[in-house]
Amino acid sequence: MSAEPDGPEDRLRRFATIWSRAVFPVTSTSLTRPELEEQLLPLARRLSEALRARVFDADEARAVGATLVAVHCTDPEVLSRTLDCVDAYLVLYCGEDGPKEQLRARASRLQHGMAAGFAAALRERTLTEQEAISSAALKAQGVVAQALHATEARFRAVFEGAAIGIGIADLEGNILQVNGALVRMFGGAEQTVRTRNVMEWTHPEDAPQVWRLYEELVSGQREHYHVEKAFYRPDGTVLWTNLTVSLLRDPDGNPEYQLALMEDTTERRLLNLRLRYEATHDALTGLPNRTLFFERLEKALGGAGEGQRFGLCYLDLDGFKTINDSLGHAAGDRLLVEVADRLQSCATAPGEMVARLGGDEFVALTIGPDTEREVDELAGRIMNALVAPVSVDGRELTVRGSIGIVEGPAGERSAAEVLRSADITMYRAKSAGGNRFELADAEADARAITRHGLTTALPTALDRGEFFIEYQPLVHLGDGSVRGAEALVRWLHPQHGVLGPDRFIPLAEHTGLIVPLGRWVLEQSVRQAREWRERYGATGAGGPLRINVNLSPCQLTHPGLVQDTVDILERAGVAPDALCLEVTESALIGADDDLLKPLRRLAEMGVDIALDDFGTGYSNLANLRRLPVSILKLDRSFTQSMQRFPADPVDLKIVEGIVSLAHGLNLSVTVEGVETGAQAEQLRILGCDTAQGWYYARPGPPERLHELALVDATG
């Protein structure tokens, strides 16, 4: 047990502690309990002094009660607990030196005085607070009234001065108030607008959801909505707006009014429509352009209707570039405008449209359940429309066109696939002579797509090392010895496997890649010829080993042909007589001196020149005298007739005559396509010099020639 306080100050502190603990739970002060104790300590001292004073002073007790209110101990429970503390502890801790009965009587009078002072102070404080509240309320009412007036003034200024149209209506759609901007939008008097009901402002171009949203708003299901809406003005013109409608509720939250805000977008819409038209129509002809055509085509192809079909005509004018180059672009433009007008007159039925894709390319589209018949008729009308000449700058220009037609059910192909098929088919019509139309063919499309893929892959194929060379032996018919081989290039394609030259050489000629490819073939072949000569000596068993390399017409016209050939031979260290360049008959017959000059220079160096596929063209045999050739290679068509027994005597006479003519001109004769021993013997009898074909060996790797040459050398 702790010891009791000793001195008067300790006892006074003890009393203040008990007092603070009793009243602290019911105070409204922000003080902590120890802080409250410090505030009660001087009050306890005043009570102790009043208790022990010679003359009792009740005012001191009232002052203590009033001070309690001043320190925010205003709860009546504070007074009750304070009086209990005074009754129980004041005499005990502050009056132990005096007579107990007298001290208790004074303590009772102190309690009465404290209660009176507390009550008087609390009443004073309450009246003061009420007066302050009343004054603040009156002041607030004035401020609210002034603010309300200012708000109404501001609202009126905004309402009347707003650039957008504002209208207020009740929930039945009766228009209650409109501002000047809305009246000006509608071009009438305010009374004319206010007499209308909202439900009367319908327009044929209203979106389906406009009035559903309106019903949801006035029924309280939504607070606002925003739409693009058209209105009729009193004069019949159309007003386009961005419309926002909001629901206004009363203080209880019930729907009361609707507020509409309208922005006039008529000019902006007209500008957008104009920009849209310019973006989707050809500036020269006024026809829909590629963008709009693709939109229509994609929509037609996406049609989910049962039996829905489409037909597409892809037109390209034949010879338009010549007209542009000879008469100028202005004349070409006038021709295109006339053609566009004629095409437009051909596609007037529902579901038909014509567009210009660019340049001299046009398309016509028809959709419906019977496009198989309709697209043919449409193509026929287009071809007939182009029959009549077009007058440009006093000239009558004949217009021809090639059309590719694609027709089929909707939903099976994309727009890009359809247009690609039509484009391929149009070029097929153009390749067939033009001035005609062709129907799309899946197999032809596949071939064209493959051809395009090969064309695009060619440039990198050489860099990736995808080409290789096979060699087919050239055999002397007299003694059967191997005299050399023809180099035949192959393409090991990553997807299509091994491709023969017929699959890619025309593409290489078309793209110009034939020149670097031909140079590579020549380098590889000459290097191989050097290896053969190093292995078997400068000559084989029956004569010099020679490599035959084909030259395309494009290579003949390349200015670096002679220098490239000389450089390749010199780098390989091979004599010119190891090389024979084969040129097709069609490339040389009728050639001028400029074309023949490079071949003459090569022939003068010692390179043999062979006239390949001889007998397949309309040869003027007299021209052979002016060609720098030393070898004629008979086409395999001459040997095919010799597979029959007995051989056709006419074919034998022809071959015999060619051989005789060639030998008379000091030319040797090589025959292609020898497949049987009987053929080889017959050709030997006729005087042919060398031959190649499957009878001897198929084209293969260079080691195959090693084996044949070894057999030949060992007998």
> What is the alpha-carbon Rg in Å?
56 Å
Assess the beta-strand content as a share of residues. Answer: 15-25%
Which percent bin holds the helix content? 40-55%
Physical arrangement of strands within the biggest beta sheet: 13-14-16-17-18-19-20-21
The number of distinct helices, counting runs of at least 4 residues, comes to 25
> Structural class from helices and strands?
alpha/beta
Averaging pLDDT over every residue, what do you get? 84
Largest sheet, strands/sense/barrel: 8 strands, mixed, barrel
The tally of strands reads: 21
Low-pLDDT ranges: 1-5, 539-543
Form type: elongated
Report how far apart the termini are: 138 Å
Write the layout of secondary structure elements.
Elements: H1 8-23, H2 33-52, H3 58-70, H4 76-94, H5 100-161, E1 165-170, E2 175-178, H6 180-186, H7 190-194, H8 210-218, E3 224-232, E4 238-249, E5 255-264, H9 266-280, H10 290-301, E6 309-318, H11 320-327, H12 329-346, E7 352-358, E8 361-368, H13 371-385, E9 390-392, E10 395-397, E11 400-409, H14 415-431, E12 436-439, H15 442-463, E13 467-476, E14 482-493, E15 497-499, H16 501-511, H17 514-536, E16 546-551, H18 553-556, H19 561-572, E17 579-584, H20 585-588, H21 593-605, E18 608-614, E19 631-634, H22 637-640, H23 649-664, E20 668-671, H24 677-685, E21 690-691, H25 702-714
Parallel strand pairs: 11-12, 14-16, 16-17, 17-18, 18-19, 19-20, 20-21
Antiparallel strand pairs: 1-2, 1-5, 3-4, 4-5, 6-8, 6-11, 7-8, 9-10, 13-14, 13-21, 14-15
Helix pairs in contact: 1-2, 1-4, 2-3, 2-5, 3-5, 4-5, 11-12, 12-13, 15-16, 17-19
